[in-house]
Every structure is written in structure tokens, then in C-alpha cells.
Amino acid sequence: MEEQLASPARLTQYIAGFSASLGALGMGTVIGYSSPALPYLTGNATDTVHLDPQEAMWFSSILNVGALIGGPVAGVCMNNIGRRGTMIASIIPFLLGWGLIGFGENFIMLLAGRILTGMCCGIVSLVVNVYIGEFASPDIRGALGTGFQLLVVTGVLYSFAFGAFLSWRMLVIACIVVPCLFAGLMLLGKESPVYLLIKGRCEEAKTSLQYFRGKNYPVDDEFKEMRQSVNLAMQNKIQLSDLLKPYYLKPMGISLMLMFYQQFSGINAIMFNLVTIFETTGSSMSTTLSSCLVALVQVVGTFSASLLMDRAGRKILLITSATLMAASLFSIGAFFYLLEYNESVAEKITFVPLLSLIVFIAAFSIGYGPVPFLMMGELFSPEVREVAGSIAIAANWTSSFIVTLMFQPMQAVIHNYGVYWVFGSICVTNLIFSILVVPETKGKTLDEISIMFGAPAKSPPIAVV
């Protein structure tokens, strides 16, 4: 019995993590929507809306601008209406954005809808990871954090699967169900104990922590440590200039580089244009089936990462991920080089792009997909989490916007093969960064991680009154 009481209850945390991560499912549907929708929007001139190639490029990439806005909005809302409150409130721009797309009669309405749904992506990508990081036990924090990325890629698959047989307008109806379910489940959830402590609602905070740990688990010691950590954070209110202190700057730099490398692997540029990419290769497999297969691999890979995260650790997954991504991108580039300069050879190996993309997506999914978001919630101490997290999310979506917007112009200038070789080269530098710079955070408490970067130890304890 004593041994049983020594471990916090996991089921409640898994349920809470899943409920919050439904926001990630909604984010995935937004990311995945453009790939099945664009063939309708660019190919059906009889509909009220018809996009030319330039407009299609903006339709794919503009959600990143919305997400860029959403990060700072989330930072403000998290501090004022709470983590849970922010997630519930996100239903409003979700519904407005999808409504504008579904009822869109012109390009401007579609862009406005993509900006609003993109803003929700920025909100969700910050608040969900912070929320989970604040209630999760160290032994399952990795698995719960990976659940975010798992549901993002499941959302992409959701859009691809429904997009295989629904028109672009009907696909909106399928997508809008997800944020409604997300908001409904969060109404039944509990607020983060850290947020409640920040607001001075100590009894509610302890009740919240007890809820997440299980009614029989002794939370006094953990609550005392959490409270002293929050008290110190409140006493040491930071200015933006404080982020230049080494114990803030180093984790900030690592998080920003992880976000940069995640997007400059080319992941979103590839996923947004997956159907078009397969059309270019001339593969005998249908573009819809190929896209769904790649998305399914992403789901399986991310699920595998959730099982490995607290066993193998973050660093080894990043190293493995970067290595395989680089190899697969160079392979795709080689195929497109042959397709342009030796088409007869390329026609014999049309399986290479699909196989290489499967390897690329699987590799991304076990490492550089989930780990940057997970480590964002781990690397920042409470006093800088909202500010630093907002900056990291902004960097992620800025990188995504640049890569997605430049994808087609780069194809025109350096050809398809050049684009993939550039992404592959970036993954090589990514590998070096993962080996030399990224620390291992597996199994460490958030305080231990802060101390690892040289932050002042949070002892002796502050008296709890």
C-alpha cells in the first residue's frame, strides 16, 4: 500500500492532458485543411471562389501570420483569465474563422478565416504546453507533452481523410466539430495549480494539485515546493532586459533554435503542399492515398515518440530525428534532380519520393515534431514562462511563414531538387546542434532544469503560512 501511495495517479493526468490536447487536434485540422482544399479552390473555376497560384500560396501560408498574432495574445490571456480560461475562450476565433472559410465568397473572406484559425493555432500551441507542463508529474511529463504533437498530426490526418471525399466547404463542417469538443471538455477540467498560486488562490491551487495527483496522494511536499517556486517568481518580476541573464538567455536560445530547426526542416511547406508534391512526382499511387499514408505515418511516429520520450530521453530522439530527416531530404532532392535531367531513370524509381517522405515524416514525428514544444514547457522557469513562451511560439510561426511562403519561389529559382537539398543541409546543422548544445531534461523537475542553467536554487524554502 505504501508503494502505491508513493506514485501520483496517472489516469487523471492523462485525461486532463488529452482534453487540453484536443486543442492540438483542432490545430492539426487547420494545418491539414489547405492540402485537400486547394485542388478544389484552384481547379474549379465554376465555383464562386477560384484561386490563382499566387493566391493559393497565400492561402496556405497566411495562417502563420494569424498564429504569430496568437502567441502574444495567449501570453496576455494566460495571465488574466488563466490557462483553462484561455483554452475555453479560443472557441470564439475558431468558430469565426471556420465560418468565414465555409461561407467564403471571395479570396479576402478565405484569408480572414485562415488568419483567425491560424491565431487559434498560436494560442493553442502556447497555452496547452504550458498548462500540461504545470500539472504533469515529472515521470509522465514527456508522454503528456508528446500527446500535443500526436493530436496535431492526428488532426492533419483527420483533414486529409475527410478531404478525400468532402468538398472544401463540407470539410469545414467536419473540422469545426473539433474545437467545440475541446472547449466542452475544458469546461469540465481544472485550472493549473501554478496559475492559481500566481493569483494568490492557495486553497484552490492545493485542491487542483490534489485533483491531478489523486485523492490519496500526499501533495504537501510538492505543493510547498511549487508554492516557494511561484513565490520566488513573483518576487523576481522580470523585465525584458532580464532575459539577457545567462540562466534565462541560454534556455531561451535553445528553445528558439529548436523552433527554428523544426520549421526550417521544411515540414509545414511539405505538409501544406503534399497533394501538389505527389502530382509532380508522377507516382502511380493516387495523390489522396499517398497523402493519407504520409499523415498516418506521422500519427504512428508521434505515438511511438510518446512511448519513447521518458525512456530514451529528448536528446537521443532529436539526434535520431535530424539524421534521418537529412538523409530522406537528400534522397527526395536526388529524385527530383533525376526527374529534371534524366527522366528515364526517374520514371523507374517513382516510389522514392513516397518512401523518402514516409521516412522524413516518421523521423520528424519521433523528434523534431514533439520535442521543441515539450522542451519549451520545461526549459523556462515560472517567472519568464509567459514572456519567453510567447517569443518562442512567435519564432516558430515566423519560421513557418517564411518557409511556406518561400517554398514555391524557391522551387522556381533553385528547382525542386535544390529546395530539398537546402532543407537537408539545414538538418545537418540541426544534428550538430542537437549533439553539442541541447541538454537532456528527462526525469528532471522544472526546478532542477532551471538550476542546471545556473538559476539561483530555490532553497532554503520560503515559509508557507
UniProtKB/TrEMBL annotation:
The keyword Transmembrane applies. SUPFAM superfamilies: MFS general substrate transporter. Keywords: Cell membrane, Glycoprotein, Membrane, Transmembrane, Transmembrane helix, Transport. GO terms for cellular component: plasma membrane. It is a multi-pass membrane protein. It is found in: Cell membrane. The chain crosses the membrane at residues 12-36, 56-78, 85-101, 107-132, 144-165, 171-189, 254-275, 287-309, 316-339, 351-375, 387-407, 419-438. This is Major facilitator superfamily (MFS) profile domain-containing protein.
